[in-house]
Design brief:
The chain has 412 residues and is mainly β. The chain has helices at 3-15, 20-27, 165-174, 342-351, 382-387; strands spanning 39-40, 45-47, 62-65, 70-79, 87-89, 95-98, 107-116, 121-129, 135-137, 139-142, 146-148, 154-158, 175-180, 185-191, 194-199, 208-213, 219-221, 224-226, 232-236, 240-245, 250-255, 258-264, 277-280, 283-291, 302-310, 317-320, 338-340, 357-361.
Length: 412
């Protein structure tokens, strides 16, 4: 039966007006080729994977119909992770060729559907493996699994630099962040090896976040393939915000928008002004030794400081400062940190968690930098944040200099 006659048969079935039993007999009879079980099409199609051994993932998968007695009608190729391999079938059904790269070190299952010159369906299922990659790029997500504040960004550290825009697109598409409730967010290339992810606004309180990578085996470029990565689960707690008005010498602490404590404080004196802007709690240290030498201050001090909550890697803390209680709420006398009474510092230390927001306003200091001294991510305008995504059609990448370990010293 020719293709033309087969199509006419289908049309006559569609137009037939008859009782259901007659329709079923006319269209679904055992003799109709489309009702038959697919025959084994092993002799009808050939794959370049038939050559044996593991396949080079840098080469496309090609499937061809043998002879003139049939054609390919459909191809489905998936790896063990369930990822589909896209491809293109020629108009005459004689050839199918993959249009995206095979994954390295993967096992594929290919289902090739055919039909012969009689219109009968055929099927061939083939399994094959691809060679492992010589060069892998790995991803390490941060922070560690746990509960964090609403300001905590997600980080991705790559084991090798990625500079090409197309390669960056491949990497970024493979880094998945899912949240409940769902919020819109985006990755930002901090530099060639580091990405940060955040929503436009702070995470909603009690959000659940799952971070994963589908980069494993995927070609990034120039013989470089993605490696496996551990997934990450984060929980967001209550929305804790500590807002310090340096001019008024007071810190206001809120939980889920409600003020829970107002604290008299002292911040940086002229020449040591506390940085303005949004910072994120990085660590909590019950005791820290702080010295003038650590920040190059001409004012000598060597102090043991208690209940220290770190907000920058260069040494800015919120901490107990019993020596300045007389100035707290009235004047700024510190070397950049936010000082308060021991009782208030202990309460603050016990109340906040990593990822909580500590914001300073009305200080004479500069703005907190975005990436090189902690998490200043929230000081980046959302439009500018999105411009540093490789998936933004037109954008500029914001680079930053890695933190010098010698700068990671405390200041009071």
């Amino acid at each position: 039966m020719s293709h033309t006659s087969r199509f006419r048969t289908a049309a006559s079935c569609a137009l037939l007006i008859a009782p259901l039993t007659v329709f079923a007999t006319a269209c679904d009879g055992d003799g109709h080729p489309l009702s038959a079980q697919p025959f084994d099409a092993s002799g009808q199609v050939a794959l370049n994977a038939d050559e044996g051994g593991k396949i080079d993932p840098d080469k496309p998968l090609e499937i061809t119909a043998k002879g003139d007695n049939g054609r390919i009608t459909d191809v489905t190729a998936t790896d063990a992770s369930g990822r589909y391999l896209r491809g293109e079938l020629s108009a005459d059904g004689a050839r199918w060729r993959s249009t995206t790269s095979l994954a390295a070190g993967a096992h594929y299952t290919v289902r090739v559907s055919t039909e012969n010159e009689e219109g009968a369906p055929g099927l061939r299922t083939v399994g094959f493996d691809t060679k492992a990659a010589d060069k892998l790029i790995r991803v390490k997500f941060g922070p560690d699994s746990g509960t964090y504040g609403v300001g905590q960004p997600v980080t991705a550290e790559l084991s090798a630099p990625v500079t090409d825009r197309a390669a960056r697109e491949t990497v970024e598409r493979a880094l998945k962040v899912d949240s409940q409730p769902r919020v819109d967010g985006g990755w930002h290339w901090v530099n060639d090896k580091t990405l940060h992810y955040r929503p436009q606004e702070y995470w909603p309180a009690r959000t659940r976040i799952q971070v994963r990578s589908s980069l494993d085996g995927i070609k990034v470029g120039n013989g470089l393939y993605g490696g496996p990565a551990n997934s990450l689960k984060l929980k967001i707690g209550d929305r804790i915000e500590a807002i310090t008005d340096a001019a008024a010498h007071v810190m206001t602490v809120k939980r889920n928008g409600k003020v829970i404590r107002t604290i008299p404080v002292t911040t940086g004196k002229p020449g040591y002004d506390t940085r303005n802007g949004v910072k994120v709690v990085l660590a909590k240290e019950s005791f820290v030794r702080m010295t003038s030498a650590s920040i190059g201050s001409s004012d000598f001090y060597d102090l043991g400081v208690y209940w220290a909550t770190r907000v920058t890697w260069s040494g800015e803390y919120v901490h107990a400062a019993p020596w300045s209680v007389g100035s707290q709420g009235a004047a700024n006398v510190s070397h950049g940190c936010t000082g308060m009474s021991t009782a208030n510092a202990k309460w603050f230390f016990d109340t906040v968690k990593l990822g909580d927001i500590v914001q300073v306003v009305n200080s004479g200091g500069s703005m907190m930098t975005a990436f090189d001294n902690g998490f200043g991510d929230w000081n980046v305008d959302w439009a500018k944040w999105r411009q540093a995504s490789s998936l933004t059609p037109v954008g500029s990448h914001v680079e930053s200099t890695p933190v010098d370990a010698a700068r990671l010293r405390p200041q009071i």
